[in-house]
Amino acid sequence: MSAQxxxxxxxxxxxxPYARQLVESQIPARIAYTGLDGDPxxxxxxxxxxxxxxxxxxxxxxxKNDALRSNPQVAITIDTEGYPPKVLLLRGTAQVEIVDGVxxxxxxxxxxxxxxxxRQSWEEGVRALFDQMAVITITPTWVRxxxxxxxxxxxxxxxxxxxx
Length: 164
What we know:
By secondary structure, the protein is α+β, with helices and mostly antiparallel strands. It has a single domain, classed as Electron Transport, Fmn-binding Protein, Chain A (Pnp Oxidase, Chain A, Roll). Helix content is 34%, strand content 34%. The chain has six helices and seven strands. The chain has a seven-stranded antiparallel beta sheet, sandwiched between helices. The chain starts with 6 loop residues before the first helix and ends with a helix.
């Protein structure tokens, strides 16, 4: 079992400017979980950060819905492509809830990547298509921000420390 952080420590990391930039960006979160067959999976998702949880909606029948009910442990990364990279790493537990219709969080999470002139027609199409969706709420139990300015990957920190 990996070490867990206090809610205060998690909030402190998530309040850092780079962490806020990452969760407010158009970059999808990549969610890693274990499939029902025991094999690892990683999927990009549009998400919503409410200050405490990462939430996203999933289509009914999606394999991740049943897998997350069976094993709710997840790892998440939200990162940049530029150099130096900025990386937000999270671990946590997922809760799956079935809701009627299309949740507003799905619309918010999805349309922030769409051009403004396409949002209304996209939303109308989605609301007409889905009768139910799964809302997946991730409660972080551990977070780390790597910005290559004030924080480095642990192995690099250890190496730098050993050279001093």
